[in-house]
Amino acid sequence: MYLTKEEEKALDGEHGEALSLAMRVLCSLGDFFEAERLIPIQSAHISGVSYKTGGEALLTTLKKFSSLGSRALVPATLNPGGVDLEMWREMGVEEKFFEKQKEIISLYTEMGILATCSCTPYEAGNIPARGTHVSFAESSAITFTNSYLNARTNRESGLSALASAITGKTPLYGLHLDENRFPTVKVRVTVALESSTHYGALGYLIGKSFSDAIPLIQSDQSLPLVEAKHLSSAAAASGAVALYYWGEKAEATKDLEKIEVDKREINQVFESFSLTREPGIVMLGCPHYSIYELKRVAEMVEGERLKIPLWVFTSRQVKCLGERLGFVQRIERAGGKVFCDTCPIVAPLKGFDSFLTDSAKAAHYAPSMNRMEAALQPTEKCVKVALGFKQ
Ligand code: F3S
What is the value of pTM for the model shown? Predict the structure, then answer.
């Protein structure tokens, strides 16, 4: 990979060991993917935050970066960690785990990275503008950023996104290049997508069928933000879809393989997630809920009493706004909980072996990450089950 004189100096340690280490990470990545050069990025979003998934190895890596004096050169945000930093006891998490998680967040903070601890950075001020280059880890945010915001990022790891935050650069290859952003398959949707969960089911089906393809999804329906979050996260979970198009895209799409998605196939996605017992808990908020989703749940449980625990996951910013607007209080009065800084998958949940969710991504990862059975239903149905209505 070609480096400018300044970049060579940085790599050789003339600007300090911190920059040199980050440059080494990016040069290895760039050489592997035969990138032509490095390009500047506008911002970064870093995954690899939960002590549950990263363990001591993550702490050791972060200590190394931090001890060298690493600092983010561009705006950078963080993915969810393993606990709610304020309500960790209510999650049943042990103190030792909480202390480790706090240490991880402190190390990132010392490096100038904003501890937003959310997988929806675009709802927390890290909103890549159309056409700009960024370095995002967290698969759901990557797909959302490429597809819905029309900015450009590869599927970064936590380490490469951190190195990009420190250098302000990323190797030029993959989805940063025009020639790699053309659709590779057409998906005609002939079924009405009735809820955001149905959009997630569609994404799940596409990811499973085409892995890392770039689908051009044709539907008569619009794609609002919440629905795009569910579609993006599910397509990136069951496969490795990092970019899709919604609607018509004229160039180079004539000869593409074409498939149709009908009601039967969407129903099959829902049926593929099933429980052998009653759900022990209902968990919503994967990806993290927006204020609109929080409001909807608050309205559904208003004046009611939950029969099954209902946990809603969101970002700290959305929770603060939700408190100002009374949504959080309404959910809590019904017996539910609203957590932030963490998520249903990267938290070390104990005491439950089955759950119901409106998120195809959460249902997909539940068995491997949490050893839990999960069933998938639209939000309204999930809340009704939590209120004691039979499925
Ligand atoms: Fe976000 Fe966790 Fe789901 S990081 S997309 S809530 S698995």
Answer: 0.96
